[in-house]
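Why run this: before we spend reagent on co-expression, it is cheaper to look at a predicted model of the complex and decide which construct boundaries make sense. The entries below are exactly what would go into the expression plan.
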Amino acid sequence: MFTRSAGRAPDQLRPIRITRGYTMHAEGSVLVEFGNTKVLCTASVEERVPPHKRGSGEGWVTAEYGMLPRSTHTRSDREAARGKQSGRTQEIQRLIGRSMRAVFDLKRLGERTIQLDCDVLQADGGTRTAAITGAFVAAQDAVNKLAAEGKLIESPILSPVAAVSVGIVEGTPLLDLEYVEDVGCDTDMNVVMTGKGHYVEVQGTAEGVAFTRAEMDELLRLAEKGIGELIGLQRQALAQ
Amino acid sequence: MFTRSAGRAPDQLRPIRITRGYTMHAEGSVLVEFGNTKVLCTASVEERVPPHKRGSGEGWVTAEYGMLPRSTHTRSDREAARGKQSGRTQEIQRLIGRSMRAVFDLKRLGERTIQLDCDVLQADGGTRTAAITGAFVAAQDAVNKLAAEGKLIESPILSPVAAVSVGIVEGTPLLDLEYVEDVGCDTDMNVVMTGKGHYVEVQGTAEGVAFTRAEMDELLRLAEKGIGELIGLQRQALAQ
Amino acid sequence: MFTRSAGRAPDQLRPIRITRGYTMHAEGSVLVEFGNTKVLCTASVEERVPPHKRGSGEGWVTAEYGMLPRSTHTRSDREAARGKQSGRTQEIQRLIGRSMRAVFDLKRLGERTIQLDCDVLQADGGTRTAAITGAFVAAQDAVNKLAAEGKLIESPILSPVAAVSVGIVEGTPLLDLEYVEDVGCDTDMNVVMTGKGHYVEVQGTAEGVAFTRAEMDELLRLAEKGIGELIGLQRQALAQ
Amino acid sequence: MFTRSAGRAPDQLRPIRITRGYTMHAEGSVLVEFGNTKVLCTASVEERVPPHKRGSGEGWVTAEYGMLPRSTHTRSDREAARGKQSGRTQEIQRLIGRSMRAVFDLKRLGERTIQLDCDVLQADGGTRTAAITGAFVAAQDAVNKLAAEGKLIESPILSPVAAVSVGIVEGTPLLDLEYVEDVGCDTDMNVVMTGKGHYVEVQGTAEGVAFTRAEMDELLRLAEKGIGELIGLQRQALAQ
Amino acid sequence: MFTRSAGRAPDQLRPIRITRGYTMHAEGSVLVEFGNTKVLCTASVEERVPPHKRGSGEGWVTAEYGMLPRSTHTRSDREAARGKQSGRTQEIQRLIGRSMRAVFDLKRLGERTIQLDCDVLQADGGTRTAAITGAFVAAQDAVNKLAAEGKLIESPILSPVAAVSVGIVEGTPLLDLEYVEDVGCDTDMNVVMTGKGHYVEVQGTAEGVAFTRAEMDELLRLAEKGIGELIGLQRQALAQ
Amino acid sequence: MFTRSAGRAPDQLRPIRITRGYTMHAEGSVLVEFGNTKVLCTASVEERVPPHKRGSGEGWVTAEYGMLPRSTHTRSDREAARGKQSGRTQEIQRLIGRSMRAVFDLKRLGERTIQLDCDVLQADGGTRTAAITGAFVAAQDAVNKLAAEGKLIESPILSPVAAVSVGIVEGTPLLDLEYVEDVGCDTDMNVVMTGKGHYVEVQGTAEGVAFTRAEMDELLRLAEKGIGELIGLQRQALAQ
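The model came back. Tokens follow.
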């Protein structure tokens, strides 16, 4: 069986930290840490919507994702300098956006946009799942601010949402992969769930060999456990 | 219960057609039709590899995806004219590439590239799953051509691979969604499986409400049935 | 004298096929075949005009052109992936657009746009002339649809238009060059004419040695013959 | 009959000036003026060739074209700021490059490149034909410099080349259109010919109504006359 | 002590020429020459303002800068072909724009834009300072034209503005560096001043070794002398 | 006289914090804080040089700069999404690069590159000067690491370097402007100096009215005081 660093059990999350109010300008600003993975998630409220929502009475929630060039082991090119976002970046920011919209009632939000920016300061595996988990807290802070200003009748947030990665490394199903585990894994799955234990996204990929139904079931079980804990930690952070 | 067009049963594929040799220049050229969805899949062999594979003794398999501007109900902008591929396009072509590589032994392929181009001539839902299903047949034709030229010792293809979409529409789980079903569905899942019945990719998304484990199980069952049939049809097409 | 494939005479067109209704969404959809050259031409009607026509009471007719990456002998890069259209692509789509506008009364069209998309599925020389010939039929179908919906008082189409290439290969003037002829030709000329036998475009280029006035006269004679036949075939196709 | 400005006859060129050595760094630097149209043509020699000519023993001749933003009546956007060259720009620079290569023996040039830059300082119609006429003189100066340095065995230039526009304005065929004539013309033709009176390029376009064979013949006659005179003026300029 | 070409004294400008009306379309068109450096500066008036000024009652003054590809010793790539302006180009055009706005009262200009285009025909050092010096004259011509048309109540120009480079070469402080001096200098400073002798911009850069306060004082003294002379020459040019 | 926030004296820096080892992957990683301005500066060592230094025996030091979208009061567009870096961004990163190279002996560095990335987490004025001050500390850490690995014979760093902004607000010269001061200032100057008190860069800009020599002298005096203190704080941070 695969041995994890720091004596971590296969079904154990890394130490999680959720720090609200990390920067001062944004309506919501959260530093989320999954072990050494650190992502700054900010929520910005804009009193306008993109063209496809204009006049609809509905708002919009969307996300962008980026990695600082030296958030990784070896420096990667700055996307702004290269002049375009990679396919991976676009895939991740679309995932974060869909995950947030899955728990938002856009009618209740009114014709405004919540823009979530998830910037990876330090990467050690699981940046997209950390981003989703942190972005939800930033979004909740932004919604609370709108509510405090009397701009909302009812909260547009229907449920919390969080995400975690799971995977099979040397035959062992593991929760919350860190970088060295991610590199060596045969199957990698990102799961996004609501506070009610329902699925928002399931994205499983066979990196090496195709995986069986039994393996998928075990991975889903691990993910459910991890997400339950993450949602508890989000609640704690928001209660402070 | 939701009634499908043409009296189709919930667990029934649309009429599938796989036409090999559709165009004359490519090493593999397949027109795949899932009902009204028509995708031209070509496989091109190039005797070189991208930089990250040079000198490795291994080959590479990759894919690009595009839609003709008027393959859809209303014309969409030509990506070449806009100057960039959308996030959706990149997501789909990355999915096709990973799906193909999952059944390829890159060492056996040798230092050459198989480039799969999947271009949608007419869209009616399920273009990405049709593309994967057709691209496999085009790739097999290209491999057969290499083998006939004595360039391969063993076939680099380990298994067939095919894909299908499944989803829940008005509470009914359905196999192989067409466009009107896709637009109205609550949950949408694309599943890629090998000929051995193992998973290569599972991508489930809650479009409206989050979905339960029981719903996911039912969707996976439908997908398994559909992919089994598709792999049979690929075999028939390749036998001709 | 140069011998053509399939015993074709110097002043003979390749077998021409014009298939209407090739795809289902577009207002006009034509597959045009000049021998092995196959171009899908679709006409899309949009109830708006570009900025320079707004409020003018006039419509607009424009074209875009593309080649599928493996429509050619060796795969060419996808323009959407490279992020820009080549000079050749732009030159061809400007030519198609001008050729269509030459037979359109934009006032009679009203403030709407007909967008012609010409996508080469298989290339064997003469793709731009096939595109013009097919695009006219697609445009006529779109106009007929508008007329049937009562949106036009008079037909905005003043005349048919078609195009053919001519060239001098090893001293022999030839009509409708296929790829192997095009590669070896000294002079290459694309001619666009109306149903009345008038010129819309003449583009002659000395590939190797400059050409004489006598050679040009012979090429124009061949082109006139070929275009007369093509306009007859357009009429037949539209009569069905 | 249409009356031209400054009492110009229909078959008369505008005053032509060809100034060599206009700027100091380039191997050839020519300011060419066709009336108020002023184009700076420089020839730069580079001791390398583009990839498709490497190791071929042959050289390359190519051209780029640009307009200063306020060379025109109303300012046009700077292409460098917009981030791409227009289709018109690309079409023109491809035409200039082909015209120059038509009179060059690339083998005799050896593996080096002559890059022609044609920048319009002031536009009043006919910029592309002025550019070709001036670029030839700049290219000849660059070749003379190479010859003086002992780098060439034989001159790679086979013949002079020049270009002129012709057109039909209010029924009158005219030589060398200026801007107000170009705007109002029904047919516009650019002709490029060698010193031997052979055609390199003929590009005729019906702006309004399609043109007849008789009209084309008259335009070609005017062009031949004009180009003969331009080649005489090139010779005079080079003799100084 | 460093010896300058043409026996120029350390505190002496190169021969300066300011030619108004250099091209015919622009509202102001000035060829400015600092020795062999030649920059064409045009001023274009547009009766609209950029979005951030709309409805403000204020106008806008802005600048763009470019170098013709062969204005330099060795040909540099055309920015329009590369698809973007370099950092150096942007830095220079921002500097020219700020320098012009420093002497403009945008309220008096009214809601219109003066666009200055500075294109280097021939470069021999000091192109940005020549551009500022020439652009002011072009701007004044455009303002005079607006005034003559009765479109201005008061002149929006508060003062002339001019610029010069200074630097330390082999220990000697020099005024108005030409290319060979610029290449070898330790410190390079561009100074922009008004007619009242006040500073608009000071940009000093240590190319090799950092410079002392005493050196800066000497450079500022030289710049002040040179700009005084340049403003006199602007006045002379405008008086003609 | 202008009153500063938090009772700050006109010649007083904001509270400065320099935190080394802020992220774990980079060879140097420094969070620098000038009051509420927070910039993460990382130094990455790469064992290769850009083309213009290959084979020279010399290394290279360069910088990139970016702002997180919500580091500012209102969210600004992500440059990676817009597809290009603004002129401001390029100007700043060129300034940082030049400032670092001014204190580096590139021969002693050997053929390797130190890439400095300065990313603004929170902006409150003075981000470029904070970036230079922090980047130096990160660069020193990277050099120390190279030295510890035995890869350097002598330190390539010749002197510390730091930067500060100064400006005139409502007639009062101020050191180290924060955002509200920067917005309202008449003159803004960024000064970069070495540990020996020599100038590397002086960039003064009249935002509103042109400034006098006496004002410049006072600003330079303030800058010298501030930079002296910053270099002391860099030394303290590096001593820990």
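The two ends of chain E are 39 Å apart (CA to CA). DSSP finds six helices and nine strands in chain E. Bring this page to Monday's planning discussion.
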